[in-house]
């Protein structure tokens, strides 16, 4: 892997620095004096209509940003990723989540490190689809012969956030009378509350873990198994013998993992396990077998539509020049805001209740990928990296934190995501409620861009100190992403859009966006501290003074 380009050494960076030094954002003026701005800055990718015109850029700045992408080799690195180069240098792995959504029979065939990737991907997809159909149709039954009514996905991070986000987003498509629940936290409250009220005889657990070593997931899987055994024994469905318990697991537990040997060690028949590969990062895995809960609840056809949506954007990135390449442009805008205008965070504001977990999903995607201080060759980064992603669906956010975005002292670029057609077309006294909802989306992006001047405030009759309080500075950047409806394909397109935004930024910063060493230390220390919690005095003594005092407090509170 070649050394990363130092972005600050490029001529584009110098141009951008000079532009920043004299930069005076003026969205009002730019819109008033440039009739072509909206058309020039609006792009289409798949079904996504992406309006970048309310961003704080001029044509010159955008051209310099595009030049930065060229000078740092974004297109070349993307091509290398698609081809299976080991972009994940610290783990010496290819990065091939894009292969998970290549259509069957794609040509030329993708062979990486001797693996026939396309064939393997489609074999698992076909098995997964067949299994999902068996569960949906009722051919697959629980130990007492009852049809599955609930699937409980046990996983964490990428083995949870993707499935739960997509399930919530596409729930209107769940048509088989099967609900999904998602257990992730090792806080026992999670599994206790999610299983409460479920019938063990009609519950199917999916243990989803790439490594099948994750403490939270394996603990919750064991708790789920105990709950199953206890419930089935209590109802007399099993006699509690070893053989009956094994039989219960065979009927009520399946797994998704890259480590099928560990699945077997847990007691799950590998005939009921679905594999994937080390070249799929956890946060890039919702389109692998990790999406099993989705194939069951939404149906395999919907799952394939989701994958096709991803692929549409993959193709756009592969075949579109940088200057029109939507994820590249959005990644470049983020670089502009972070590295030149001092933004530290980025809001994602879906005007779709169904996307209420999308910001949380994006937090793992973007922050686990680009929250790094070293580059892919082990040298320190030379710029700030990894902005903080956050958000809530509109209009809830409007009544919570938008105040700060409108009138606070921080620059917070925001993506607004909306759909022309609602999943539930309800009316209120003859008025289309979704239309009212969308009016808010349009109003917010307008208010953020153009603000309200003191003169306009005064013209409404306000005087004195209130004028300043009621003035909106404007020039708060937003991107509007609009689509016809939130279909499986559109959702796949949206996810892929953000994957490639993340990739663009990571490449410019010289980051390996596909490892996550920053999660390891806490995991190690938790294992060291656990004995101290359980009463081991040596483990207690080995702690620092603050941890020791906290452990003492803990012990004092326990019965
Ligand atoms: O948080 C670290 C992490 O490794 C994530 O990257 C991953 O998605 C999550 O843990 C779960 O890992 P696994 O799927 O192996 O259980």
Automatic annotation (TrEMBL):
It catalyses: alpha-D-glucose 6-phosphate = beta-D-fructose 6-phosphate. Keywords: Cytoplasm, Gluconeogenesis, Glycolysis, Isomerase. HAMAP family: G6P_isomerase (MF_00473). GO terms for molecular function: carbohydrate derivative binding; glucose-6-phosphate isomerase activity; monosaccharide binding. Its main location: cytoplasm. This is Glucose-6-phosphate isomerase. It comes from the Bacteria. Its EC number is 5.3.1.9. SUPFAM superfamilies: SIS domain. Catalyzes the reversible isomerization of glucose-6-phosphate to fructose-6-phosphate. It comes from Microbacterium hatanonis. The keyword Ligase does not apply. GO terms for cellular component: cytosol. It is found in: Cytoplasm. One of its GO terms (biological process) is glycolytic process. PROSITE patterns: P_GLUCOSE_ISOMERASE_1 (PS00765), P_GLUCOSE_ISOMERASE_2 (PS00174), P_GLUCOSE_ISOMERASE_3 (PS51463). Pathway: Carbohydrate degradation; glycolysis; D-glyceraldehyde 3-phosphate and glycerone phosphate from D-glucose: step 2/4; Carbohydrate biosynthesis; gluconeogenesis. Belongs to the GPI family. The active site is at residues 368, 399, 523. InterPro entries: G6P_Isomerase (IPR001672), G6P_Isomerase_C (IPR023096), Phosphoglucose_isomerase_CS (IPR018189), SIS_dom_sf (IPR046348), SIS_PGI_1 (IPR035476), SIS_PGI_2 (IPR035482).
């Amino acid at each position: 892997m070649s050394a990363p380009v130092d972005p600050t050494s490029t001529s584009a960076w110098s141009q951008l620095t000079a532009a920043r030094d004299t930069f005076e954002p003026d969205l009002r003026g730019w819109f008033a004096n440039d009739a072509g701005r909206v058309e020039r800055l609006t792009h289409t990718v798949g079904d996504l209509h992406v309006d970048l015109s309310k961003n704080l850029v001029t044509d010159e700045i955008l051209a310099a940003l595009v030049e930065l992408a060229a000078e740092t080799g974004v297109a070349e690195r993307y091509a290398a990723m698609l081809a299976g180069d080991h972009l994940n240098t610290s783990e010496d792995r290819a990065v091939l989540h894009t292969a998970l959504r290549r259509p069957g029979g794609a040509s030329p065939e993708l062979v990486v490190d001797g693996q026939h990737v396309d064939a393997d991907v489609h074999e698992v997809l076909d098995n997964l689809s067949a299994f999902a159909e068996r569960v949906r149709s009722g051919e697959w039954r629980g130990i007492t012969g009852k049809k599955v009514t609930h699937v409980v996905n046990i996983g964490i991070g990428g083995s949870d956030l993707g499935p739960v986000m997509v399930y919530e987003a596409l729930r209107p498509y769940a048509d088989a009378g099967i609900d999904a629940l998602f257990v992730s936290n090792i806080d026992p409250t999670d599994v206790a509350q999610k299983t409460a009220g479920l019938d063990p005889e009609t519950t199917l657990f999916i243990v989803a873990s790439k490594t099948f070593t994750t403490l939270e997931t394996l603990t919750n899987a064991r708790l789920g198994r105990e709950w199953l055994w206890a419930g089935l024994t209590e109802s007399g469905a099993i006699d509690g013998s070893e053989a009956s318990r094994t039989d219960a697991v065979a009927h009520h537990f399946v797994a998704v993992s890259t480590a099928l040997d560990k699945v077997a060690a847990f007691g799950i028949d590998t005939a009921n396990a679905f594999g994937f590969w080390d070249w799929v990062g956890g946060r890039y895995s919702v389109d692998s077998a990790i999406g099993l809960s989705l194939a069951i609840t939404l149906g395999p056809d919907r799952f394939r539509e989701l994958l096709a949506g991803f692929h549409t954007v993959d193709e756009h990135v592969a075949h579109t020049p940088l200057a029109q390449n939507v994820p590249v442009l959005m990644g470049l805008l983020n670089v502009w805001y972070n590295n030149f205008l001092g933004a530290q965070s980025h809001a994602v504001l879906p005007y779709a209740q169904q996307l209420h977990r999308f910001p949380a999903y994006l937090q793992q995607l973007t922050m686990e990928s680009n929250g790094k201080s070293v580059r892919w060759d082990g040298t320190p980064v030379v710029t700030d990296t990894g902005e903080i992603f956050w958000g809530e669906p509109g209009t809830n956010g409007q009544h919570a934190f938008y105040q700060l975005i409108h009138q606070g002292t921080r620059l917070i670029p925001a993506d607004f995501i909306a759909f022309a057609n609602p999943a539930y077309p309800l009316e209120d006294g003859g008025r289309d409620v979704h239309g009212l909802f969308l009016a808010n989306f349009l109003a917010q992006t307008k208010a953020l861009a153009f603000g309200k001047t003191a003169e306009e405030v005064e013209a409404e009759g306000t005087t004195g100190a209130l004028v300043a309080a009621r003035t909106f500075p404007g020039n708060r950047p937003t991107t509007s992403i609009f689509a016809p409806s939130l279909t499986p394909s559109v959702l796949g397109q949206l996810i892929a859009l953000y994957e490639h935004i993340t990739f663009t930024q990571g490449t410019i910063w010289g980051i390996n966006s596909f490892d996550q060493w920053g999660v390891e230390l806490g995991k190690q220390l938790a294992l060291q501290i656990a004995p101290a919690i359980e009463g081991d005095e040596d483990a207690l003594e080995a702690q620092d003074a603050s941890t020791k005092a906290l452990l003492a407090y803990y012990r004092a509170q326990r019965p």
